[in-house]
Amino acid sequence: MVLFEVRESTRADQRLYLEARLVDVACLDCTVVVGVKKNSEHHTAIQWQAHGPEHCAEFQKAERSPSGRHIYESCPRLRGSIDRAVAEGDVPIGAIDGY
Question: Which of 98, 73, 72 is nearest to 20 (CA)?
C-alpha cells in the first residue's frame, strides 16, 4: 500500500543529501566501515553501512535504556580513525556541492 507518491526529484535529493561525497573510512581497531563527509571543520556526517554498530566492540558495551534500546555514545576509536583520515586528506572538508 502506497500512502503517497515520492517524486524522482525528491529521491534524487535524498540520495544527494545522504550519499554525496561519502568516503569510506574503516575503524583502525574493529575494521567496521562507515561513510564519512565533512561539510566544515566542525561538522562530520557518519553513515553506517550494512555492518553497523553491532560489529563495533565499543558499541557492544553500550548500556540499555529502560525501554531496552541501546544508548550509544561516540566510539573514540572510530572518531580517531575518522580524524586520521581527515588529517591524511582522505576525507575532504567543505560542502562544495551544497551537501
Answer: 98
